[in-house]
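Re: Re: ligand-bound prediction request (bumping)

Still looking for help on this. To restate: I need the protein modeled with zinc ion bound, output as structure tokens. Inputs repeated here so nobody has to scroll up.
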Amino acid sequence: MRGQRSKQYRKLMKQYEMLFGFREDYQVLLDAEIIQDAARFHMDLVGGLERTLHGKVKPSTLIYSSWSIHRKLIFQVITQCSIRHLYNSEHKNEALIDQAKTYERRRCNHHLLEEPLSTLECLKSVVDSKDNLTNKHRYVIACQDGRVRAHMRQIPGVPMVVSLIRHLDREPA
Ligand SMILES: [Zn+2]
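Reply:
Sorry for the wait, this slipped through. Here it is.
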């Protein structure tokens, strides 16, 4: 990533911090598709997130060392439905499932349903459970689904990482 663009992202995320109270450590909510696409296209998901958000993705065994004092941590978060999407995928990939299981699990509680909800329905309920246009848990969304992005754009203060982690989608609204 070129220096100029990298600086822009840093500035954008600073704005999210000031306007919407994003804290030092970011929680990035990933869907099944972006994890699968990253693997399929040999994209470096972790590196992309780190460069875009200027932090360090939390290793599966977190040991606080000197870097974690000086750098933001990025927590990869996945919902129960997205895990089920990985299981139900026609291109089921055990290694990817194992990887996703090391992420922070967001208990959307849709596991009680016979079928997982769609990514849109699940992420909608996780990000804005009361349907009052608030990103209560200050998630960053990493998802390429056009319908999800269109929905999240209506909610102020939802930074989105799209297009296989090439850029943040928009400025704070
Ligand atoms: Zn769910």
